[in-house]
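Reviewers of the previous submission asked for a worked example of the structure-prediction workflow described in the proposal, so we include one complete record here. The input consisted solely of the amino acid sequence. No template or homolog information was supplied to the procedure at any stage.
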Amino acid sequence: MRVFTQILFAIYLLSFTLITCAGNKVGYVQMKVIMQSQQSLDVGKKLMAEFKPRNAELEKFAKQVQDKQTTFEKDAPNLSQKDYAIKLKEVEYLKIDLDRKRNRQHEDFVIRKQEELNNFENSINAAVTTLGQNEGYDLILFNTGGYIGPKVDVTDKVLKLIK
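From that input alone, the workflow returned the following structure tokens.
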């Protein structure tokens, strides 16, 4: 069985070599370079700008909760048992509300991040398709590859086409 697998692999390599030698045009996109590009960083900056007001609002609310906690701790020795219980519940409810808001914001951020990554991926795919059609490539690979020679690396061309 192992010999059979090796023979099939050898046939695959030979056929791939024959195909590429037959004048087919092959390209490769380095996704690591794409994901570290300015276009990718712009997606991150867009998300940070979008969530900046919400982060500020959340920080403001966290400060209010902390101030309320500090005031409660300072006033606790002077409060009646009934007032102490009421103030303690207020602080605890505020902390629970803060945790909920943080969780909701985190979930919203994760959802938006995934949306933006999907949009960026679609832009990459569109750029690869455009490059392939415009320059007559028969095959453009990305995301995998052991060694990729400089003659087939089309990463820079794809970066220029990403919107």
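The longest helix spans residues 81-135. We consider this example representative of the routine output the project will generate in years two and three.
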